[in-house]
Amino acid sequence: MPRIIAGSFRGRRLAAPAQSTRPTSDRVREAIGSMLGSRTDIAGARVLDLYAGTGALALEALSRGAGHAVLVESDRKAAAVARENIATCGAGDRARLVQRTVESFLAAPSASFDLVFLDPPYAVGADAVTDVLAALPAHLAPEAWVVLERGSRDPEPQWPDALEVVAGKAYGDTVITLAQAT
Q1: pLDDT (tens place) for every residue of the chain, 182 residues total
Q2: Minimal CA–CA distance to 16: which of 6, 27, 26, 2?
């Protein structure tokens, strides 16, 4: 069972649905926190968690001081678990769950975000991830950060010119890529 690694929610155990998601491991979330922490201060950041699953990435960011998070998840079971995890962390006043597809969310106008997590299911191919990345800049604040988590066997998606890849690292079967809006 995953747990929050650091910050005000540290140690809280998060629920995970039996089969509909692949939660980001504690080790990978800790690595993401370190990658971001050495480059930016997320205090007060507006976070967008696409393919939110359990909500662990957004909740970890809120625990570390982010101001507000929008979690986008289309799977009904995963969305129910994300709601439960938001409640477990007492983050209901700072987190909003949107139950719809990532593509439909990005097709509509929204606030701009300082930090975006993308953790698509393995079944989402590189072309679909490339399309999501292409739609993302319209939703980003200046100098926003984007964290992409994907399987190590997945082909690398195309990054739009508006996002500069600044770091990448593999953790077992998981690859983390960090990019910044230019």
Answers
A1: 788 899 999 999 999 876 655 667 778 888 898 899 999 999 999 999 999 999 999 999 999 999 999 999 999 999 999 999 999 999 999 999 999 999 999 999 988 999 999 999 878 999 999 999 999 999 999 999 999 999 888 898 999 999 999 999 998 889 999 999 99
A2: 2
Tokens of 14: 């998060």
Question: What one-character-per-residue DSSP string does 54-111 give?
Answer: TSHHHHHHHHTT-SEEEEE---HHHHHHHHHHHHHTT-TTTEEEE-S-HHHHHHS---
Q: Give the start-to-end residue ranges of the domains of the chain.
A: 26-181
Give 26-181's CATH code, choosing from 3.90.1300.10, 3.40.50.150, 2.10.109.10, 3.40.50.300.
3.40.50.150
Pairing of strands 113-118, 68-72: unpaired
Rg (CA), the chain: 15
Side-chain half-sphere exposure of 77, counting CA atoms within 13 A: 8
For strands 46-50 and 68-72, give the pairing: parallel
pTM of the model: 0.94
